[in-house]
Amino acid sequence: MEPTDLSMLELGRKLASGELSSVEAVRASLARVDRFDGQVKAFLRVDREGALAQAEAADRRRKDGRRAGPLDGVPVGLKDLFLTEGLPTTAGSRILERFVAPYDGTAVKLLRAAGTPILGKLNMDEFAMGSSTENSAFFPTRNPWNLETSPGGSSGGSAAAVAARMVFGALGTDTGGSIRQPAALSGIVGLKPTYGRVSRFGVVAFASSLDQVGPMTRDVPDCAALLQAIAVHDPQDSTSAQVKAPDYLAEIEAGVKGMKLGLPREYFELPGMDPEVRAAVEDATRALEKLGAQLVPVSLPHTRYALATYYLVAPAEASSNLARYDGVRYGLRADGANLLAMYGRTRDQGFGLEVKRRIMLGTYALSAGYYDAYYLKAQKVRTLIKQDFVDAFRTVDAVLSPTSPTPAFRIGERVDDPLAMYLSDVFTLPCNLAGLPGLSLPCGFTRANLPIGLQVLGRPWDEARVLRIARAFEREHDFHRRTPPLGVA
Amino acid sequence: MSVADFQPVIGLEVHAQLLTRSKIFCGCSTEFGAPPNANTCAVCLGMPGVLPVLNEKVVEYAIRVGRALGCHINPVSIWARKNYFYPDLPKGYQISQYDQPLCQHGALEIDTDDGPRRIRILRIHLEEDAGKNVHDAGGGDSLVDLNRSGVPLVEIVSEPDIRSSTEAGEYLKALRDVLVYLGVNDGNLEEGSFRCDANVSVMRKGATQYGQRVELKNINSFRFVQKAIDYEIGRQVEVIESGGKVAQETRLFDAVRGETRSMRSKEEAHDYRYFPEPDLPPLRIPEGLVERIERELPELPRAKLQRFTSTYGLPAYDAKILVSDRPLADLFEKVQAEYRGPAKKLSNWFLGELLRLMKEEAREVSALRFSPTQFAALLQMVDAGDVSNNAAKDVFAEMFRTGRAPREIAQQKGLIQVQDAGAVEAAVDAVLAANPDEVEKYRAGKKQVLGFLVGQVMKAMKGKGNPGLVNAALKAKLGD
Question: Which CATH number fits domain A3-257+460-481: 3.60.21.10, 3.40.50.300, 3.40.30.10, 3.90.1300.10?
Fold first, then answer.
């Protein structure tokens, strides 16, 4: 067995006992990066020296009896929109191609405190806008399960790196499904925590009221452990909640007996849902029923407006958040005869097509005369969507659904059809609009050996229960232990 | 028809910097005059990934302003983003407040030729300042200084209740006095810590419908406010009289030419695309905060003015000058409390010697070297006849410069008047004996000779004779 086959917590235990060193773990990870990343292309930058230095420090801490916690010495990767002091942070964009972050974001600081060496920065759709990582300004990432397909997005680099066992875990961000959808398509576990659970400070913003940082791991206990490390109130983020995180591992094995799990009928009636996905998810719900949960049909009637609502709110906020990339202070600056020309050319050369599309959409939605009809109306519908969940959670403890209506799709298949691409996120968007925690875990494979994800949505701040439900399923199945066919001739 | 046939309607928007030590959304210093970009961090530079964290002192200061102007303080107000591109605006948006500001519906009373008038305040909201573009810095480049980026501001918006440029000036002065009294603003127009835009329209006298308003920007002194408004009123009247229509636009005041010129038309107006700031929760005012701030409000300029005229019986002119500077007014009250003589007499000293020396030596009240007790003692010496009024001015100047006790100065300078009746009498006798002709004239009815004789006595006494005693003694000897 290779060290890279271990989960984060398993490796952590071996590091604690001295059976393995962090330097060995980092070297093993780097060896896989060297072997496979030429095909997968998950990394935008590998920080060998940095990771090895952090691993040496972790090994010293162990020798001195000062281990920082269960993840000390376990190598991880970061989606390339986490600001890391001294390392480039591109957000997958030309406009930040040469930008070196002047500070560490809060989640990065917390990871450093937890002792996890940071192996590198992972590819993503530009500014997290996309569902396939094809919108990366640099190159698309490929799905380790089938290199012709996409790992999903926007945190596709993170998902692919974890699935290909090049890192033990990674952080992603999720604005409309950007952690859960790639987790589903790449066969890993991904959690979007409750809005406000993890600090957004030091994370390149896409849509501030929706963005949330979360863990992407190979199994559910790792997901709990990685969340534990970053679920800390941050006074530098005014939307970070002053809610103390429970011990997410404490009751993770407690099972689902007696729990009521909701099945939203609207989610299962979507036209265009892949039959294999539907079958696998329905099997998964029955498996949970067998484990003692009670399945309850629920209705989330405003779900059908979630996509439209999301594509007003998110681009509106993005159009404002991306205004700072103007060529004046950092990042790309194109020459221009005057200020306006400089602005125009910088942003024209610096931003890709999808980013420009969303800036246009958002600018329009906020314009005088249109604000009420678009942005304001969308905010009202958002309230109704939130209310749907409040109503559902009166009768059920969590809601189950597919994560994505389809398994991984072929690279290039949807790039010219933004609407088809947007539909990838139809099951994941409502969770962001409502601010709820949502998790995706592997629940099956298609005949073509592509992973299928089950989504578990919980009440606000109820991550522990979401993890517990996911763990109950995971324990009885081996989907999360299967390995992608990399290096198999 | 002429300007006199038209009624100007004016509303003012004042941006006042709040004197907090740190910026509104980060911990950077707000100090003026630091080297360019010294007072900046990732947050106020608008780096990727940064988030605003509200400085609560800013809210307290704004509530002070709101309550001092009689505003309702909204228990919940909303932060909003005002979006526009400019190099001095690092995030590409300004965090401000829009449709739910912190304070609403107040008023400020001002003096006009027709008596006091209330100018209603529509709203007061909080926002962050932008940086500063520096042009012509050499090399053909424009440079950006972001020291001011994120400095807290209140924007105070009046209703269109102002009817002349003079009233506009009065309103601004009164508003500035209030802010300075509250300790939240230094009232400095030149450094830009107190800035003003004006909305100006004109309508025919007797009309009920306001005319098209024009926004005037870049008014950086009290003098300019009146000049800019007067110019604009004249311009609008001319447009109407020549059969034209006033256009909706923003105009810039050019202080050098003394005129306004078009900056952007309605078509070119910015669409700021305001929307609620998702990085900041709504601003909720904690229970009891408004009441606590209200209890701690100082006496405001108009109340103090009233008290200075009624309690001390000072003329309005004197009271106004004393009250215009809160530390000056406080000093006056401290000195008066110890002096207990006629307040007008003390006021004369303040308006005369004190303010003159403060101006000459560019010294603020807080930097004065003498104590209120010393100032009071000097006045008491004058009243007691220990020093002459003129000599007291010398003593005061010395006391102003050194902070030494007035009696000590007077003694050292030999300015203490001779109060000994015997010594005065001896000097009088000597002068009368030496000037028989003048004594004759006086007795013959030429009373003005007395002045000469007094002068001779004073000269004989080397200026130290108490003029009252000298006068009395002379008259007695001359048989009056």
Answer: 3.90.1300.10
